[in-house]
Amino acid sequence: MSNTPNKYLSNSLWMLLEKSARIVSGILVGVLVARYLGAAQYGLINYALSIMAIFTILSTLGLESIMVRELITRKEEKNKILGTGFTLRLIGSFLVLAGATGYSMLRDTPDKTWIVFIVSLTVVLQSFVVVDLYFQSIVKGKYTAIGQVVSLLVSSIVKLLFIYFQVGVYWFAAMAVFEAFITLLLQWRFYTKESEKVWLWTFSFQEAKQLLYHSLPLIIGSFVLMLYQKSGEILVLRFLRDLNLVGQYSAAVRMSEASYFIPVAICAAVFPGIVNNRNNPELQLKRYTQLCSIMLWSACIISIGGALFGDFVITYLFKEKYNLSPGVFKIHIWGAIPVFYGTAWGTWMLAQNKQRIVIYFQVWNLLIYLFSSFYLIPKFQLNGMAYAVVFTYFTGMIFTLFLYKPKESFGIFFSAMHPKQLLEVFKYGQSQIK
């Protein structure tokens, strides 16, 4: 029996390990940081991170999945693909730095602008993340997982020391840069361990043109997605004008969004397998249906668990300083269902080179998000922001089912929700472990 399926399973497990470590770090250390800083200062850091995240699309340029696909299908040109992708990301990272800082200078006080500038430096260091894309293409996610776990461990220890010595908020903002630097060093080490050489990377204008052409729909779609995923803190401050409320919202959303690492990790791990099955449409569709089954069932379990135990967990973790966070969390956690499904659907569209279709749905989602936010925040205050997010996510999922090949889409959706499909996934996983 070929060991290829085992490679994909192992890759998935390694990437899930990394994401799980990130979740544990976010809960154990992130909660301590939030409690130490207080809602206002914690809100300040997350406000800066939100601004940086929206501008980050200027750095990533939607290249990640496109580069993975190209590295799989054109292995012999990897140095040209990696070199061109790195150069484009490096140029974009300086645009992020300028754009995010400039925006903050026009709208915010100097202390907020400094925080935005510090966290935006992270994007420059993340240009070397193209190495991670190479590891994804050769199904060696363990390198990425090990690097991320080590950097998380080191940064978590440093954050605990910061709390112990009671340092200021600027030091915590700088931790994002420190963590990115550690990740860069480890990725460089693992890349050379594979007998690869960075100095062999080359830049090609023709390659850049081709990558940007294919990634243009993803650039637009990712920018729209980032607007309605990361602008919550900005809208809360815009309407409610209180950094304390921004911190309360951030604490709840960070806990809820911790689960979003699951679909990202699984989809990134199985994406090469779906692409490699492009000559067998029936098997490719089966694998996608199995992926949807994992996504939908895990999201339902997470959402129900969060709704039942959210009050106790959030109150226990964040204490009385974040008294509004439990209510926000119990609303926001239901967004996991459409987010998990949407991540799988986006992977399917990319595998079929239909990423342009995603743009229309993303633009529609953004319009719904803006209208619902402007109506629900003044009406329901902090909870209104959470209602707007969940309403947008579910509306987007429903429109996807009804408007994109509805017969096929509903067939896959209901098949994925059938317990028999999930049982087949578990049996398949057990057979590959054996």
Oligomer: single chain
Distance between the termini: 11 Å
Radius of gyration over C-alpha positions, nearest whole angstrom: 21 Å
Q: How are helices and strands ordered from N to C?
A: HHHHHHHHHHHHHHHHHHH
Biggest sheet, in brief? Answer: none
- Outline, from the CA principal axes? globular
Number of strands: 0
Helix content bin: over 70%
- Beta-strand portion reads under 5%
**Helix count from the secondary structure assignment:** 19
- The assigned structural class equals mainly alpha
| Average pLDDT rating | 83
Q: What is the domain tally?
A: 1
Poorly predicted runs of 5 or more residues: none
Structure explained in plain terms:
- The structure is a single chain.
- This protein is mostly helical and 434 residues long.
- It has one domain.
- The protein is 86% helix and 0% strand.
- The protein has 19 helices and no strands.
- The chain has helices spanning 4-55, 57-60, 63-73, 78-107, 110-125, 130-137, 141-165, 169-193, 205-230, 232-240, 243-257, 261-276, 281-318, 325-332, 336-351, 355-380, 382-403, 406-417, 419-433.
- The longest helix has 52 residues, at 4-55.
